[in-house]
Amino acid sequence: MSKPIVHVGRYDKFMSPFINFVNKHFAQQRHLFFLFVVSYSHELNDSGNVHLHSNKRGLLKTLVFNLQTAWKMQRAERIILHGLFNNSVVAILFFMPWLLKKSYWLVWGGDVYYRPSGNQLPLKIKFMRMMRRRVIRQMGYIVTSVKGDYEKAVEWHGTRSPNLPYFMYTNSLYQYVAPPERNTAKTRILLGNSAMRSNHHEQAMDIIAPYVNDAVEIICPLNYGDLEYGKEMAKLGEQRFGRAFRPILDYMPYDEYMQILSTVDIAVFNHDRQQAMSSTRVLLGMGTRVYLRKETTSYANLTGLGAKLHAIENFCLALDPQESAHNIGIIKTHYSEERLRANMAKIFGSEKALSS
């Protein structure tokens, strides 16, 4: 029997569709998932090849899960790292460096940009920073379709690992979602993608404020990330925009969130780094006008494909049907299911995709 392909990382909101896609198009028995559940809720995937763990289960169970994960990584043909956030995963790779040559780091964005600095950092954080840097430097392969993120990894972490320029997640795919009925007389703006400070919500509110009136509605997802910060931004948005501001504070199933995105006319992402990349692709594929910071790797990557985006400092409420149609065509071409299956087959190596 051939060795398994072991997936390790964070169980985030888009992992369940990824797992379902892998199990549908590849041999399920070859793929094992060892994933760390974060504090907020997700629908759990009940397939037999998925193992989930939360640190809330206690120290002993966490130790057992980590040992089990390390053992499966040792026996794996290939290791697929879904982000590089978890300290336990970093520690396993640091103390078992021979695993790195068969490891494929699927970059999420924030894992590249996480660089705690300063002389006053606690010793534990300094040690983790050193371990992360060494792991990244010796990584087997770095998988990201965003060239700028790979360049940041080289510049900041000193890695010489080869870049495999593939997108790997289903939430980047072009998908048509029939929008539910709504009041189309109102322009609907999506503000940010999470309760993370890198969204710079307050500054984004300043930018859109002159355009907010009774014919504008603002959707603001604040249901994952720093939830205390999310509550602060929800309060601020309601103070500034009143009934026009509609924060999302509770967990929402993926399909329901896609329904909301399908109703958005304009998306405003004020991130200071690559973030919300998959949401940005999906929105462009829905014909949404998207505003980003021009200096981000996201902006460079998507405009490089031919998509038409706008710098956030040029925000206005104007819409262009021709631009929407153009962007839909770009996303359809570059982010199809066929291309995703081909990308996965390249990363998974000898395994071929099953017929669809």
TrEMBL record:
Q: What is this protein called?
A: 4-alpha-L-fucosyltransferase
The UniProt keywords, alphabetically, are:
Cell inner membrane, Cell membrane, Glycosyltransferase, Membrane, Transferase, Transmembrane, Transmembrane helix
GO terms of molecular function = fucosyltransferase activity
Any Pfam family: Glyco_transf_56
- An individual GO BP term: enterobacterial common antigen biosynthetic process
- InterPro entries for the chain: WecF
Q: Where are the transmembrane segments?
A: 79-100
Q: Which organism is it from?
A: Pseudidiomarina insulisalsae
